[in-house]
Amino acid sequence: MFLGYFVVFNFVYIEFLDSFLWQIVWPFFANLYGVQQLVWARKYVRDHVTIEGDENQLNFGQLLALFLLVLPLLASVEAYYGR
Question: What's the whole-model pTM score?
Fold first, then answer.
């Protein structure tokens, strides 16, 4: 009985890992974890470390990261409209 459940569970698990749904789900949770780590780190730094200057000022490094985040969106829009 246990072996049958184990085989069915493994089949469903392997099929899920190969599915398109998994390709959507895991980046969502990875991004959720990353945002949680960022929020925690900013709170920890604000409470325990003294920083000179303004850490919320938008500089070249932050703008480059935002630009690189937008590039896949622009590529998908371009592919959708067929240009």
Answer: 0.49
What is residue 19's three-state secondary structure? coil
Beta-carbon contacts of 45 under 8 Å, excluding residues fewer than 6 positions away, are 51, 55
d(CA 16, CA 52): 48
> In the chain, what are the domain boundaries?
2-81
> Do residues 51 and 45 touch, judged by C-beta distance below 8 A?
yes
Q: Where are the alpha helices (DSSP H) in 18-83?
A: 20-48, 60-81
pLDDT at residue 12, as a whole number: 86
Residue 2, token pair as written in the block:
């246990």
Is there a contact between 36 and 44 (Cβ–Cβ < 8 Å)?
no
